[in-house]
Amino acid sequence: MKVKNLQQFMKEKRIDFAFFITKRDKKDLNVNYFSQSQPESGCLVIPAKSKPLLFVSSLEFGEIKADVKVVQIKKRVSEELKSRFKNIKRIAINKDVMTLNEIKSIKKAFKGACFVDISSTCKELRETKTKEEINMIKKACMITDKIMQKCISNFKKFATEEDVVMFLKNEARKAGCAMSWEPLVASGTGAAIPHHNPKGKLRSGFCIIDFGVVYKGYNSDMTRTIYLGRPSTEDIRMYGLVLQTQQDIVSQIKSGIKTKDIDKKARNLLGRYSKYFIHNIGHGIGIDIHEIPFIRSSAKGKIKEGSTMAIEPGIYIKGKLGIRIEDDILVTDDDAQYLTRFPKNLICIVK
Amino acid sequence: MKVKNLQQFMKEKRIDFAFFITKRDKKDLNVNYFSQSQPESGCLVIPAKSKPLLFVSSLEFGEIKADVKVVQIKKRVSEELKSRFKNIKRIAINKDVMTLNEIKSIKKAFKGACFVDISSTCKELRETKTKEEINMIKKACMITDKIMQKCISNFKKFATEEDVVMFLKNEARKAGCAMSWEPLVASGTGAAIPHHNPKGKLRSGFCIIDFGVVYKGYNSDMTRTIYLGRPSTEDIRMYGLVLQTQQDIVSQIKSGIKTKDIDKKARNLLGRYSKYFIHNIGHGIGIDIHEIPFIRSSAKGKIKEGSTMAIEPGIYIKGKLGIRIEDDILVTDDDAQYLTRFPKNLICIVK
């Protein structure tokens, strides 16, 4: 995606090439983005004036399908680069991901070269999505809706939080997708911890189900909160408040509004419960599950047309309960379209 | 684990504190190691002369159980550190994981401080395992053996490589474990690619099953190769060669032998097939699935008592077949003990 835009930027800045390293435990998703592939590890080189090259090891070579030329690494990558590129003066790197030890060997291979941080430029390119990307995210969201539907229909069969997690993972795999991250299922008082680790019996009360799938490298991210047992009037009221907040917020999003205003409005809508809303109201989604715009009170800038994001207000009362409702949306010039569409009325499961 | 050893080292080097950052997509497993916890993201600070502190966000706080004190992050971590530590001169960091942008804010908070790379020291501390660690790795290996047994017994039910992957993942979850990585199932010509991505129907010929589980943060790593259909005499001979190589190599491992000699011996044993052995013969396992010692021709140093490692010879003939046999072992002063023990006779599945 957008390799030409990046190359245009590089030419303007007199950068010779951009260099990205991705590893199993230290992903640079710019590699996936610009090459449209998902290598376990590898290096992507994007020269300003010629075609990109994706270097992968013999362990993966032959498996990787990419929009760019794939090359098998035969020697150290820094040596490989040195033999291919001469008279290099300016190299762009992603300082958000490149480590202090990785830069050493590159510096050694290109003595005297200047290193420019390209992290922000990549983030900005990725913020607004191409039609192709929007289609992939839409597909991921559709699959997510279907899995959520199946999960809720089968809910009476589950005994533990892990049972629900297993069900979600199996359904995703059946649909040919990986999970965006380990699904989160949090019931009873566990729901009060936003990143609860699913374990043990499903407890009565609110139960948060938060997951996403990866379709051709692109993520969805959806949360629904159901009720196990019979909710009190107060429970229903609190759920209604989170739901109303989410719907009001989404109805106000369109391109050009200030990012930080979304956060402010959400906290206003939650009123006296806003102190129980302990995370950000939303974040961009795409090839990464969390990317710009990060929608928080300190955010600068405005919401852009063609950006895709997750909006997720919540209430977390420690030792008591947790409620979160999250949908993915696509921002247009005059509104925001829901990409995840599973209903949001409070579903109660009474065994 | 070994916090005191690290602190002793820091005192000798006049380091004030060590600072580690771990994130969802950029793990520093030293955080897990020294704190014996598995935060999704967080920072670990180990002062030379006082108790370590693990900083986690409100999203995880309340969930994390650790061997060290867990603190909820309330402001920027660099600010948090600045308010707690005064007159700091030398800070240890892991330059293998810390990024160029992360170091910026720490440098700003501790102007004039000197930053020392502690990556090698941590690797060396982690190379030899404590009794407690060995027990956890043994348990991971036992669970792996059981899952492999169940997988093979059920093999006739599977139609696709994904079916096998799903079965392995479900069994691991039932045993209360995560997978060490996405399981690898590679049949027919797919087996010729060491990091094949499982997809589509199980094809006749050799089928590689490579997976590991995480028990209390510690990994196993095992591979068995079975045959789908009826193997030829040549197939049986090649399988026998890989098996003989693996057993001979393991029988020669004990503390004190040169690491690079293991690689050399394996390639000698494989004879004219050594050109088809396109990866390293082995690697350490522990809190990381790949850690020192990396057993390859360029390796320096000797094998140490108390280290745990995976030994995995293989043959990969492009467009034809792949065979790999991998066990985890524990090195003692006079031999190496198998930790994974599932039988290695060639199992043929004929439907």
Description:
The structure is a homodimer of 351-residue chains. Chain A has 351 residues and is of the alpha+beta class. Chain A has two domains: 3-126, Creatine Amidinohydrolase, Chain A, domain 1, CATH 3.40.350.10; 131-349, Creatinase/methionine aminopeptidase superfamily (Creatine Amidinohydrolase). Helix content of chain A is 32%, strand content 24%. Chain A has helices at residues 3-12, 29-35, 77-84, 100-109, 119-127, 131-153, 161-174, 233-252, 259-270, and strands at residues 17-22, 42-47, 53-56, 69-72, 90-93, 114-117, 178-179, 184-187, 205-211, 213-215, 218-219, 222-228, 282-284, 291-295, 308-311, 314-317, 321-324, 327-331, 336-338, 348-349. Chain A has a six-stranded mixed β-sheet. Chain A has a five-stranded antiparallel β-sheet with strand order 14-13-15-18-19, with helices on both faces. The first copy, chain A, has a four-stranded mixed β-sheet with strand order 8-9-12-20. In chain A, helix 3 (77-84) packs parallel to helix 4, helix 6 (131-153) crosses helix 7 and helix 8 (233-252) runs antiparallel to helix 9 (259-270). Chain A is elongated. Chain A starts with a helix and ends with a strand. Chains A and B meet through helix 4 and helix 7 of A and helix 4 and helix 7 of B.
